[in-house]
Design a protein that fits this description.
The protein is α+β, with helices and mostly antiparallel strands and about 150 residues long. The chain contains 2 helices and 7 strands, in the order αββββββαβ. It has one domain (about 25-150): Protein of unknown function DUF2787 (Nuclear Transport Factor 2, Chain: A), CATH 3.10.450.430. InterPro entries: DUF2787.
Length: about 150
């Protein structure tokens, strides 16, 4: 989902967090939210990015879910970013692979468990993860992007 650099829609503001989420990610989230004006009145949204061909047999791009919450000051706070993957050999199941739970200040990495999100290695890992995710978006690897509110 390449970002159109000529978009003149007003930018939504994002609350800072322990993980430094890039302006590129904010612009993409802004574009998705602004493309559906009815979403501006809600307080919580989830955005799911899927590669419909992703499977345990053939691989593909991991599904990603981002949850945002609108604060009292009308800015958006990224509550969590979760990357899912298949685990298991005979009966693989889709499960959490990486989870940046910004609202709780923790991160989960498969094989490691829960870790404080403020650790330098977690921040470094996040920057790499986000860079890869943004590259996948620019390459149109996700053929289903769904925004839901609750």
């Amino acid at each position: 989902m390449p970002v159109n650099k000529t978009t003149k829609a007003p930018l939504l503001s994002f609350t800072s967090s322990p993980l430094i989420t890039s302006n590129k990610l904010h612009k993409i989230l802004n574009k998705l939210i602004m493309s559906q004006p009815a979403l501006l009145g809600v307080s919580t949204l989830t955005i799911n990015f899927r590669d419909k061909s992703y499977s345990s047999e053939s691989g593909g791009y991991h599904p990603v879910e981002i949850c945002l919450h609108k604060t009292a000051s009308n800015s958006w706070l990224i509550q969590y970013i979760t990357d899912f993957a298949y685990f298991g050999s005979y009966y693989p199941e889709l499960d959490r692979n990486v989870d940046f739970d910004i609202s709780k200040g923790t991160a989960f990495i498969s094989g490691t468990g829960w870790i404080d999100i403020n650790r330098r290695d977690i921040k470094d890992f996040y920057r790499t993860w986000e860079s890869n995710f943004l590259s996948y978006l620019n390459m149109d690897c996700f053929d289903e992007i769904e925004v839901t509110c609750f």
